[in-house]
Structure formats: C-alpha cells, structure tokens
Amino acid sequence: MTRPTTPKTPRTFHVKSFGCQMNVYDGERMAEMLGAQGMTAAEDGLSADMVVLNTCHIREKAAEKVYSDIGRLRREDGSRPMIAVAGCVAQAEGPEITRRTKMVDIVVGPQAYHRLPELVDKAVRGEEALDTDMPAASKFGALPGRAKQPRPTAFLTVQEGCDKFCTYCVVPYTRGAEISRPWDAILDEAKALVDGGAKEITLLGQNVNAWGDDTGRGLHDLIRALDRVDGLQRIRYTTSHPNDMTDGLIAAHAEVEKLMPYLHLPVQSGSDPILKAMNRSHTRDSYLRLLDKVRTVRPDIALSGDFIVGFPGETDADFEATMSLIREVGYAYAFSFKYSPRPGTPAAEMANQIAPELMDERLKQLQTQITSDQLAFNQRTVGKSCPVLIEKAGRKPGQLVGKSPWLQSVHVYAEGAQIGDMVNVEIVSAGPNSLAGELVQQKEAA
C-alpha cells in the first residue's frame, strides 16, 4: 500500500527524543545525518517540514503518548509536516502505526535509522517507508562524522542491545541482541567529539559494561584508552548491569583520574525471590558485595540505582527488603518506577499483579527515602572544593550551572567563566536536587 504523497521534499527538520540517554544520542545522530543531506534544523515541530519523533517504549502507554504527539503536529490550516516515528515504539508497533494513523509517513526502528534519508525519498514518492529490520551490519558505519558540539558534554554509544531478558523488559525485543561497536570506531568518534568541543564524554549502552571485543578487551580497557585522548577531561558510563561489573572496571575507578566517581548500577529490588522472578542474574548479597568492592577502591563514589515497585507477587516482606537495601546503601541518586506490564514480556502474564493503589503507596514511601538519602549525600559535599564543568547559564543574571564530579548540578556565580570552562568551586549549600557554590578564587580574594 502506498502512502499519500507529501506536499514537498523537506528542507527543514526537527528531532524530538524521548526517554533514555541512548535515545538522545540516536536523536543527535539522526539530526547530523539529515543535516548532511542538506536539511536545516528547525526550532520546533510546527515550523519544520519534517518531524522525527524518536520514541521510548519503557514507560506505560508509550504508544498512546506517541499518537497524542502526532495529533498535535496538525497545523491550524490542516497541513502537517512529514512525520517519522523512530525508536523503540516504532520497532514494537511497526506497520500498526501507519494502519492506525494516516499522518505518519515513515516508521524506522532504532537499528535502522541510518536508512532515514532513503526512507524520506520513499515517503516523498508516496511509497511505503517502513524499516524495522535489525541488520547484522553496524549502522554506525553509515552515519556521517560528528558535528561540532553545542555543549561541552557528549554522549557516545559503544554498546547496544541486551541478552539478559529480564522478565519485565522489552529492550531485547526492540533493540536486539548485545553488540559492541569496534574499538577504533569508538576512539575515532571520541576524538571527533573532543575536536568538536566536548570536554566530557558519557559512554552509553543498554548494558554498557558488557562492551568487549574479540581480543578480550573490556570496557575498562576502552576507558583507559580514552584517558589518553588529549583534550578529554571527564569520562562517565551508563547503564551498567551487576553481572558485567568486572574487577578490571572496578580498578579503573581507582586508577583512571578522568573517570568520574559516579556509578549507576541498577538493582531493581532488594528481595531475592523478586530478583529471581525478574530473571536478574544477581542476588541482594552479590550486589552489596559489588558495591563494597567499588567503595573500597573509590570511597567517595556516588552510587545510583533503579528500582521497580509492585512487581507481580511482591509481598510486604519483599518491599521491606528493598527499603532496607536502600537504607543500607545510601544512594546519591536513584530512579524509581511502578511496575507496568509491557506486552510480550513474561511478567505481563504473571499471576499476583499488584493493585495500583498499593504500588502508589510503596512508590511514595520508597521515593521519600531516596530523597532523604540524596539530600544527605549532597550535604556531605558542603565545605568541599571540587572542579565543576560549566554547562549552561542559570536562571538568574550572571549565574552559571555545571556538574560536579559526582554528577550534581552546581549553581555558581563565576565572573569571566564561560560554558565549557572547568572552574574550581567550594560547595556552600545543598538541597536535594542541586548545590550552590562559590568560585574558589573569588572566595580567597574576599
């Protein structure tokens, strides 16, 4: 079936990304690719000739939210831009999207977006423009070189897909099996990002610490190679899986100065029966022992995690096991969600689904504890001096906002400093979500 011919070949585009940091990276790469085709970025969807909705399938009713976003792109005169639905909802829904709405011209999955220019050509000709293949060949080789960076921080995807098959998760079905990008390609892209203005690079992957190559090198080897890139000042990585947290990677936290003291290591639950039902490969004890090893080599590390409350069959005792783990760890930050069934996953068919009211109550209790622990962690940085990478202007005149080594937002007045500068700041106050600091030189002068 052919699609209605769009009014014109698009000359301007707007990419709107939802969800995880990998989607942000994919959105940037799609924008660079469309720019390489001679198209110009527009400020918003209503003024663009083409809009790419780069979707996420993790949250509940993700597909319904996409259709709402599509509807909002219809203009007052009845016209609309060319619309491409990309990302994980595109992968999961496939041709159902164009069957459900005639407003969508292109559907492209996260492993096929390097074919977006040819799909645009198909849409202009009125042909079906659908690609949800998961080709064995890497899409990254088909993408253009990295553009100059508008921010001093950049994302760099090094690994995609997942082989863990947690019973609640759609990632293995929407992103495919675990694959690692080649060593040389990663280093070349990192150097291009630094040459383009990046001072900090965050390595991304569904299971980023599963990165490896045929020579036996792991993520820790890659981090040590990036440590030697001139001009790169900071390295981070996310998201990790406890099963792939190797001794070499733990040692890198002690030995690589550019590797920031921050680790996002999702546990999901503190209950062994629930972890087993989730098909997580770790136990409560093995997870805590991992954290002990990390803290031994890097005592100041900020720990972050993910938690799901209300997983099918979760009892009061299971939930209390999660709460006790949170209290024991003292997270600097954590993401928490109510369980929501994802179609096609084993957990969606499990018995003993938890009532929404009980999930709400548990989530509120868990988030109260996390907020308290986050505030406590932030308050422990008061009085410390640390380098802050300035990322943007603050809301107040003269105010700048940057990140501490522990990924905290720091507000500071630093006369003469610019975005991209690294400034030495003393932390003078802390809230649950951000810190306030004073430039060390100004404080000493006073």
Strand content: 15-25%
**CATH class descriptor name of the largest domain:** Alpha Beta
Annotated CATH topology of the largest domain: pyruvate-formate lyase- activating enzyme
Main sheet makeup: 6 strands, parallel
Counted by DSSP, the helix tally is 14
Q: What is the count of distinct domains?
A: 3
What percentage of residues falls in helices of 4 or more residues?
A: 25-40%
Arrangement of strands in the largest sheet: 2-1-3-4-5-6
Mean pLDDT: 91
- Give the CATH architecture of the largest domain: Alpha-Beta Horseshoe
By DSSP, the count of extended strands is 19
The CATH homology group name of the largest domain: tm_1862 like domain
The global form is globular
The computed structural class is: alpha/beta
Describe the structure in your own words:
By secondary structure, the chain is α/β, with parallel strands linked by helices. It has 3 domains: 12-131, Rossmann fold (3-Layer(aba) Sandwich); 140-379, tm_1862 like domain (pyruvate-formate lyase- activating enzyme, Alpha-Beta Horseshoe), CATH 3.80.30.20; 385-445, Nucleic acid-binding proteins (OB fold (Dihydrolipoamide Acetyltransferase, E2P)), CATH 2.40.50.140. Helix content is 32%, strand content 22%. The chain has 14 helices and 19 strands. The strands form 5 sheets. A 6-stranded parallel β-sheet has the order 2-1-3-4-5-6, with helices on both faces. A 5-stranded mixed beta barrel has the order 15-16-17-19-18. It has a 3-stranded parallel β-sheet with strand order 7-10-11, sandwiched between helices. It is globular and about 60 Å long. It starts with 11 loop residues before the first strand and ends with a helix.
